[in-house]
Amino acid sequence: MKKIFFSIILFSSIFALGQTNGDPFKCPKFYFSAKNLYTKSYLDLNMKIMEKDITLSSLYFDFDKVIKLIENTLNYNQIPSKEQSQIIEEIQNLKDNLSLDELKSLNKNTEKDKFPNIIAFSKSGYLSSLNINPILAKYLPEEKAKKVEEDFTINHINAKNAESFLEEQFCVYREKNIIDKKYDNHSDFMVDYFKKLN
After folding, report:
1. Number of neighbouring beta carbons within 10 Å of residue 38
2. Which residue positions does the secretion signal occupy (predicted)?
3. ∠ CA 79-83-84 to the nearest 5 degrees?
4. What's the Cα-to-Cα distance from 172 to each of 6, 25, 83, rounded to whole Å?
5. CB burial class (10 A; 0-12, 13-18, 19+) of residue 70?
6. Are 53 and 158 in contact (CB under 8 A)?
7. Which residues face 4 on adjacent strands?
8. Partners of 195 in the β-ladder
9. In which band, very low, low, confident or very high, does the pLDDT at 116 lie, cut at 50, 70 and 90?
10. N or C of the chain: less Cβ packing under 10 Å?
């Protein structure tokens, strides 16, 4: 009798959850025991992790914001203002003045880089990119350049994990009305999210 009673309570709780928040149980990756994952505060934290990655942010932010992210990491690593200015100026110069073919050639020369730190940008109607590691190596001592590169790489790995989590759990966030149901996929949601920050 106790088992039947417990089953009724459990079913009622599940049914009530579904009635209140949509039906997260239809989502293939819903973890019923991990309720702390399905809150607005957890989603906000996940998005803030993505904001720190220069690669991901460069796809959504305007370029000035990406430069600001780079400056923040340089400041965190106590890079002198002179070297900071040289690094930022060279990034801006390469972005503005190199042709698409020249950028491709430049990137090809850094293909052996195990952990490239890429920024993306629009050029002549096409999406182009630039690995900033050689620029860091040009203006910073070897150990300091390596430390800055590692910080960018750690942010990138964290951001990719955060994006994968959002993609995996997007269905649940929609069903629980944490993400508006007007968004069909996590990419559409991210476009709007970053647009509001610009």
Report:
1. 19
2. 1-18
3. 70
4. 26, 8, 46
5. buried
6. yes
7. none
8. none
9. very high
10. N
Q: Which residues pair with 119 in a beta bridge?
A: 130
The tokens of 179 are what?
A: 């993400």
CB 106 within 8 A of CB 43: no
Scanning the chain, the segments in alpha helix (DSSP H) are 2-21, 40-51, 54-60, 63-76, 81-97, 100-108, 133-139, 142-175, 186-197
Residue found by looking up tokens 């106590």 in the block: 78
* Closest-CA residue to 66 (of 97, 45, 91): 91
Enumerate the β-bridge partners of residue 30.
none
The pLDDT assigned to 84 comes to 98
Contacts of 179 (CB under 8 A, 6+ apart): 43, 170, 173, 189
Helix axes 142-175, 40-51, angle to 10 degrees: 150
pLDDT of 24 over the 70 cut: yes
Report which residue type is found at 165: F
- Which phi and psi (to 5°) does residue 104 adopt? -60, -45
Closest CA to 174 of 69, 21, 62: 21
Q: Indicate the helix (H) or strand (E) that contains 118.
A: strand 118-123
With contact defined as beta carbons under 8 Å apart, do 131 and 118 qualify?
Answer: yes
Stretch 87-116: mean pLDDT: 89
Query: 70 with 132: CB under 8 angstroms?
Result: yes
